[in-house]
Amino acid sequence: MEKTIKKTVLEVGADGVGIITIVNPPLNLVSVDVFLSLKKSIEEAVQRDDVKALVIIGSQNKFSAGADVTTFGKSQGKKAHTELGFLSIEFVTDTLEAARKPIVAAIDGPAFGGGLEIALACHTRISTSAAQLGLTELQYGILPGLGGTQRLPRLVGLPKALEMIMMSKRLSGKDALKLGLVDAIAPRDKLLSVARHWALDIVDYRRPWVVSLYKNDRLEPLAEARIILNLARSQARERTPNLTHPLVCIDVIEEGIVAGPRSGLWKEAEALLQLRQSDTCKALVHFFFAQRATLKIPGVTDMVLSPRNINKVAILGGGLMGSGIATAFLLGNYHVILKEVDHHLLSAGLDRVKANLQSHAKKGKITKDKLETVLSLLKGVLDYDSFKDVDLVIEAVLEDVSLKQQVFADLEKYCPQHCIFASNTSSINLDKIGEKTKCQNRILGAHFFSPAQFMPLLEIIRTERTSLQVLVDLLNVSKKIKKTAVVVGNCTGFAVNRMFFPFSQAATLLIERGADIYQIDQAITNFGMPMGPFRLADLVGFRVAIASGSQYIEKFPERVYKSYLIPLMLEDKREGQSTRKGFYLYDEKRKASPDPEIVKFVEKARIISQVIVNPQLSRLSAGEIVEMLFFPVVNEACRILAEGVAIRASDLDIASVLGRGFPAYRGGIIFWGNFIGSRYICSRLEDWSKVYGKFFEPCPYLVEHAMNETPLGTETKHASRL
Ligand code: NAD
């Protein structure tokens, strides 16, 4: 028989309370060993005459961060099935919840997933106000599998339980108290003594002994519960139409309400076993670890360089991006100077920042006091006079090489010697931008995505001359403004825009040859993107698209698809959503509707480019549209990997999800490419390149992987040049 590794410690006090401490540092993750140890400790304590009641607590002020995510998404055999049944029913329900002595959970730090589910089965929960509680399993493509789907609704009521489970929401101890999820709050240094007293009070019948699985007073009557569950189903379908696990989870909750909690527990265990092996779970687990991996930058984060203090930040340009970036820095409590070229543009920029912050306050993301405080950190200027003590400048002026070159040369004159110069350029090679600047070691790219105050990605571009210190400083800043930073090398379009440039190009190529604009957008949104390429082009604006496009045409003339469509639309004063006319027409509320007049521009562009219409393209299936738009993205991502622009393939997954909204449940662009298979992608691209030209031609990296049938991005041969 396998020996269990001891993961809990039982200590019995003179008051007759047995304290069971989970000891599985650093996060006290729950594993089979933890469960077996807990079971043993509880059984021992229940047997002992000197123990009246029990308290379960986690070591090092952390209750338990839940199950080990590395075990999700792996193939599970019969043993796992038995284990899951054992954990949920035999341990949580029959040993812990049914113990003959009251058990109190004393919660500090994280109590997530399986960790919280242990606490839910205890007879009372006491927590610190800063503790974090949540059933976060849905974010990994699974569902709570240790009775959480049955106990949480019975403790907090169905609507609140659904909100927590469906959104993988984390609550502070303070908020959990309001819901009835915890019974009392105690300061950290008194947590254990309050829990002890509470346990003894239960023994003395001064407080109730609650078995949450059979608690019914918070459950709505069946008819009402069904209405709530059906509403949750339709919201889940609307939010994530391609995902089934949220619906499975609702079915499991319903089973417990209709057929009783024990039946619900069995259905939950069965569902968990299935979901743990699903493609969605594999993709979401990959995404979770890929995001963590971005924190490691070889040769940078492993050096002993401490970030310097950045106190004052200047933003150049108060347009769409500058105002969003300023908002992000203010929310990170930085002093921000916003510079514009004239009074009118400056006041428009400052107004945008204020509106952004007010909208945060309206949504309850910041308090009114915080709004006032951060607004006092903002200053608008028209010259460089106040730049003499600025630590970091983010340039967000128009996408124009000579303007940016001039601005960077000016900065050198007015800023202190330590000041970092970052550009938010979408596509211009940073060496070009810094051509007129002497101190090129202080230059790097800080590429934010629109809207900058919300989008979670910061693409940091280091040139061959960027100093390590400057990079370390910006990485630290990115944490403070709550962005996930992906560090990439310097090239035209960097990683994100370069990967996705072929996406819009393929869309344009297809419509000029007969495909339908609105059908393409529909297929792409059905795939899971936030919007299709044409709706996106309208949002970004045609002038930005032309400015960026010109960089690609200059750099990659041999494979860029040249189209006259957007210039023709610009001639007609169509600039996209800002002019309420682009590929769509927009009403005052920015609601988009298809424009029948678009055909005119497409036909004109076709004539100029001498393109022949292929009637088959008007009958493309949604799957074919997805392939024709995304396989070129995979192809470009392969070039990026081959050139060593990205540190690792999974960084491109993160960049595609957080920068462009590629669905996280597909794992990111490279993960998805591997799921489809490099061989298939390569052969399709080869077929299309024979018909439509070089634009579709697979790159050598992709061809090599297709031939060898090796997954994209796993080799060490193409070492990063970063
Ligand atoms: P925008 O036209 O909305 O704003 C640019 C602002 O810069 C204008 O208000 C202009 O008056 C100001 N400006 C020009 N010269 C200046 C100077 N010398 N000092 C101070 N201000 C000056 O443009 P935007 O969409 O905010 O784009 C700004 C930059 O961000 C561009 O490089 C663009 O490529 C990049 N970017 C744009 C997006 C996007 O979605 N629009 C996304 C990422 C990056």
UniProtKB/TrEMBL annotation:
The keyword Acetylation is assigned to this record: no
According to the UniProt record, one GO cellular component term is: peroxisome
Q: Which reaction does it catalyse?
A: a 4-saturated-(3S)-3-hydroxyacyl-CoA = a (3E)-enoyl-CoA + H2O; (3S)-3-hydroxybutanoyl-CoA = (3R)-3-hydroxybutanoyl-CoA; a (3S)-3-hydroxyacyl-CoA = a (2E)-enoyl-CoA + H2O; a (3Z)-enoyl-CoA = a 4-saturated (2E)-enoyl-CoA
The highest taxon in the source lineage is Eukaryota
Q: Which GO terms describe its biological process?
A: fatty acid beta-oxidation
Keywords linked to the UniProt accession: Fatty acid metabolism, Isomerase, Lipid metabolism, Lyase, Multifunctional enzyme, NAD, Oxidoreductase, Peroxisome
Q: Where in the cell is it found?
A: Peroxisome
Q: What is the predominant subcellular site recorded for this chain? A: other
Q: In which pathway does it act?
A: Lipid metabolism; fatty acid beta-oxidation
Q: Which terms in the Gene Ontology molecular function aspect does this entry carry?
A: (3S)-3-hydroxyacyl-CoA dehydrogenase (NAD+) activity; 3-hydroxybutyryl-CoA epimerase activity; delta(3)-delta(2)-enoyl-CoA isomerase activity; enoyl-CoA hydratase activity; NAD+ binding
3-hydroxyacyl-CoA dehydrogenase NAD binding domain residues are 312-490
Q: Which residues form the 3-hydroxyacyl-CoA dehydrogenase C-terminal domain?
A: 493-586
Q: Which family does it belong to?
A: In the N-terminal section; belongs to the enoyl-CoA hydratase/isomerase family. In the central section; belongs to the 3-hydroxyacyl-CoA dehydrogenase family.
Q: What is this protein called?
A: Glyoxysomal fatty acid beta-oxidation multifunctional protein MFP-a
Tell me the organism's taxonomic lineage.
Eukaryota, Viridiplantae, Streptophyta, Embryophyta, Tracheophyta
